[in-house]
Amino acid sequence: MDIFEKCYKFRDADVIKEAGLYLYFRTISSAQDPVVTIEGKPVVMLGSNNYLGLTNHPEVKRAAQDAIEKYGTGCAGSRFLNGTLDIHIQLEEKLAAFMNKPAAVTFSTGFQVNLGVISCLVERGDVVYLDKLDHACIIDGARLGFGAVVKFNHNDMEDLGRRLNVHDSRKAALVVVDGVFSMEGDVIDLPALVKVAKAHECRVMVDDAHGIGVFGDNGRGVAEHFGLEDDVDLIMGTFSKSLASVGGFIAGEERVINWVKHRARSLMFSAAPPPASVASVLKALEIIEREPERRERLWENTHFMAEGLRTLGFDTLDSSSPVIPVLAGEDTLAFVMAKRLHEEGVFVNPIVSPAVPPGRAMLRTSYMATHTREHLERALEAFAKVGREVGVIQ
After folding, report:
1. Are 275 and 71 in contact (CB under 8 A)?
2. DSSP characters for 242-283?
3. Residue 388, CB-side half-sphere exposure with 13 Å CA sphere
4. Residue that terminates a domain, selected from 273, 290, 307
5. Same domain assignment for residues 248 and 380
6. Both 108 and 132 in a single domain?
7. Annotated active-site positions, please?
8. What is the CATH number of the domain that holds 314?
């Protein structure tokens, strides 16, 4: 039996390509701005996580360029050995202060944060509780640990409570959830979760990849939004959304972060974040702190689009964030709608099973502070046209 046999038999992507509906790995030949260039044509970008519009900010780009001039293009090793630069330490101190936590440590990608942190914390005899719609990297991190994994119904704290009621109190427990769920756009019921977790003496970790820079009076995320920063033990964030770069971090108690630095394999055995990425995040944090109006514009655009899509008759599920899904139904219909929207000059992401349950395929849209009203009105016109064509709206 050839281990490659499964690869030769894999036809899912081929079938979609043959139908002319393949919309993954689209090639963009411009910056991640509100309008991008694809095959020489301008397309309104409603598929990016560049929430604050900082990835093409001139100050962020200059910071990256200056870092390359000083440090070169890479670190040539892991943080654990030869790859720690002074700007890594500066960034970690800045992140800890920004997040109102004693300490923080950075990783080369956000995926690696959850992979390393969860797997090194949840040891044999421990239990980790996950929301059923947690991101893939949370699930994979839990699988890599040697503890038991228990899933509870999505955003259902009564179900979490029932499962914790039968938890063996002799076993240490960690609850890990997304702050903002990356496909559905809804926000974790953090007040109820914290109440349940405290009652059962469980630690709480929030993956706030899509919340940092977006929620809270200062952009510190969902925990700040709910006034529960002191009740969340660990907050994870990524640099590839509001922070305009690539990488990730975990913030929490100093002794816990110290454990992670000496036990998380995805940190210890991966090359350090490159200088340009680190410098970009430092500058992005500076801009976030001095320009709160970016967050205000993001929410203005989010509310405008949410109301516009719902007024047209689209089902946007329970979204309460700049991630706004548009329910399509069957997988093929989601591909058809995304293709037609692309032809109308609007980029959206088709999300199909198994990423979502069968019959619940959707178009994932997301918004930026730098979208203009003209961009959004053009997008709504395209949605109205395509939605009526395929019969999703009247």
Report:
1. yes
2. TTSSS-EEEEE-HHHHHHHHHH-HHHHTSBPPPHHHHHHHHH
3. 7
4. 290
5. no
6. yes
7. 182, 210, 241
8. 3.90.1150.10
pLDDT at 183 over 90: yes
DSSP 3-state of 42: strand
Confidence of residue 390 (pLDDT cuts 50, 70, 90): very high
Same domain, 300 and 161: no
Average pLDDT in the chain: 97
Which element (helix H / strand E) includes 12? helix 12-18
Name the token pair of 89. Answer: 């330490």
Q: 225 with 211: CB under 8 angstroms? A: yes
DSSP string, 326-359: EEEESHHHHHHHHHHHHHTTEE-EEE-TTSS-TT
Same domain, 131 and 267: yes
User: Which domain CATH number covers 148?
Assistant: 3.40.640.10
Question: Is residue 153 domain-shared with residue 257, that is, in the same domain?
Answer: yes
316 lies in the same domain as 356:
yes
pLDDT for position 169:
87
Asked if residue 275 and residue 172 are part of one domain, the reply reads yes
What DSSP assignment string belongs to 68-83?
A: HHHH-S--SSBTTTT-
HSE, side-chain direction, 13 A CA sphere, residue 230: 1
Could you tell me the residue range of the domain that residue 50 belongs to? 5-56+292-390
Pick from 237, 264, 290: which residue ends a domain? Answer: 290
Cis bond leading into 354, ω under 30°?
yes
- Tell me if 76 sits within 8 A of 83, measured CB to CB: yes
Strand (E) or helix (H) holding 351: strand 349-351
Strands 346-347 and 148-152 turn out to be unpaired
What's the pLDDT tens digit per position in 20-77? 999 999 999 999 999 999 999 999 999 999 999 999 999 999 999 999 999 999 999 9
Specify the pLDDT at position 173.
97
**pLDDT of 103 above 90:** yes
Query: What is the rounded average pLDDT of the residues 81-101?
Result: 98
φ/ψ of residue 358, rounded to 5: -55, 135
Q: Has residue 355 got a pLDDT over 90? A: no
Do 166 and 186 lie in a common domain? yes
- The tally of domains found in the chain comes to 2
DSSP tag of 14:
H
CA angle 393, 300, 227 (to 5 degrees): 110
